[in-house]
Amino acid sequence: MTNHFDVLIVGAGLSGIGAAVHLQRDCPDRSYAILEGRDAIGGTWDLFRYPGIRSDSDMYTLGYNFKPWEQAKAIADGPSIREYIRETATEHGIESRIRFGRKVKAADWSSADARWTVTTARSDGGTEDFTCNFLYMCSGYYSYSQGYKPDFPGEADFKGQVIQPQFWPETLDTSGKRVVIIGSGATAVTLVPEIARTAAHVTMLQRSPTYMVSRPASDGIANFLRKLLPAQMAYDIVRWKNVTFGMWFYNQTRKNPDKVRANLLGRLQKLLPEGYDMATHFNPKYNPWDQRLCLVPDADLFEAIKAGKADIATDTIERFEADGIRLSAGGLLEADIIVAATGLKLEALGGMAVSVDGEARRIDETLAYKGMMFSGLPNLAVSFGYINASWTLRSDLIAEYVGRLLNHMKATGMPVATPTPGPDVQPERLAMDLSSGYVQRGADALPKSGNRAPWMVTASYKHDRKELREGDLGEEMVFSKARAVVRPELAEAAE
Known about the structure:
Number of domains: 2
Shape: globular
CATH class of the largest domain: Alpha Beta
Helix content: 25-40%
CATH topology of the largest domain: FAD/NAD(P)-binding domain
């Protein structure tokens, strides 16, 4: 069957292309294909095209461990990241492995055949099935087809345009316009200074403040080392420097949250106009890293505020009116364009329906195994990065683990690997260490966590690096061969 592969990778974004490179290196004898629902490489970095889109992590940690980032800017714009992913695919001959226009809709595991049958919807309107021995999901964690947008009272009365960043119109012109951006996350923080360059005025309307930290867009140490050392060596040094600092800083937020808060707010105060109302607009109600920090490269947001091109309003929305947004406190934010940067919609496995021997399985009823597999689901891994650090740090480790697992299965002649918790494991809500709205809204799309390893998802790169590279592959993992399935109803009929 031409549509059968040893491994199917779903998604040709940052994780999927990286997974393919690792698979080719670690398991060169395995056949594989990549199923991509869209018609382009890049995933998030091809989907999102709003003005100024950029990374909110440095490229020395967001980049792959095997491909040095060699551009001067460490905080890269979207097109540069997209090109980096495409370049990786070209260098490793991956484009020919990608089946574009195949949106994965369902996957059913056959215990008798020890393989998945994956059903896809083609962009031409048809369907196409693929089979594989191992299914590797690199489809991200949010819906590509819809974002999260509240139903705003009176929205129909607004005479201007309401835009969602996930679906930014190519022809939208904000020049000379009054723009209100609803939100306080990474998207809003990116949009404000970019749009403020040409707009009449931009207001970021936030319900509550977010922690922000400014750093240079370029890494001086990295640029210096690249002149002295081979590219990979310089990259590895800077990568470890940034990883180590990130882990130290995160640990400080857990141990000394008040001290970190004071430090962050003190740094911000120096970047804002004298007398700016920090208490209202930059003093979050939660501790640092209870939600993801927003990165402001080269202090561009604060420069826009100091220049009078942008400001921040902290309030809730009473309703939309013809000329803008009426706030609960009574004021009107006048607007020609409103941008609802109100978040993502979490979606497990790209919205794919999963079943085992025809019996539907719900991801939210499974336990997460080492943060990358699911209890009771054989031969299925998912690439899921860090929330408190760069996504790719963990997706690289998961790809290495998958290679180890596949080679172990082949060496032992056991083609099926099923994570199976011990009887003492108690399910808990997945602990992501975040209180962000999109995480709380989408918690039902996520697996449960267990009360002990290996069923607890960690936020520690140091721990995961050792566990996923060197840990026991047999830890609460049942290896087996294909087996016949006897359904109780069929057995009763036979009697």
